[in-house]
Amino acid sequence: MRNETTKEGQSQFMTKRKVQTQAHAVIWIDHSVAKIFSVGLTGVSASAVRAHSLSPHRKANTEVDSTFLARVSDALGNCTDLLIIGPGIEKTKLEHFLKTNRPTLTVHAESSDHPTEREIVALGRKRFHLD
Asked: What InterPro entries does UniProt report for this protein, alphabetically (predicted)?
């Protein structure tokens, strides 16, 4: 994912907030990171959850971070409607995890390559009719 930065070198949307507070969120996820964008009428906040690296190289039959999806779920806070996007199967794993562990959460999943942060937020605004 391309990073959009300000003159100060900080991402335009990324904040240090650990838990999302809006009802709608978009997650871009792959095997190593989940970028969470909380989208509302009043603005956007963002955070990231990184998988703990158990091996420097991603190979078949290597150990994976068993806490990654649970930590992503925790970071959603009081979110009630979620759009999951990403390039691989991690989005499907997260969708299944959330439907099992947070049955009241409305979850949508779509395939996506590596959009910019602005494109991710635009997808969320469109999905949740916040334009």
From this structure: eFR1_2_sf
CB 77 within 8 A of CB 21: yes
Q: What does the H/E/C string look like for 93-107?
A: HHHHHHHHHCCCCEE
Helices and strands, counts by H and E, the chain: 3, 5
Per-residue pLDDT tens over the stretch 66-106: 999 999 999 999 999 999 999 989 999 999 999 999 999 99
Q: What is the CATH number of the domain that holds 69?
A: 3.30.420.60
Would you state the structure tokens that stand for residue 125, as one six-digit string?
């605004």
What is the DSSP code (8-state) at residue 53?
P
Residue 94 lies in domain: 24-54+62-127
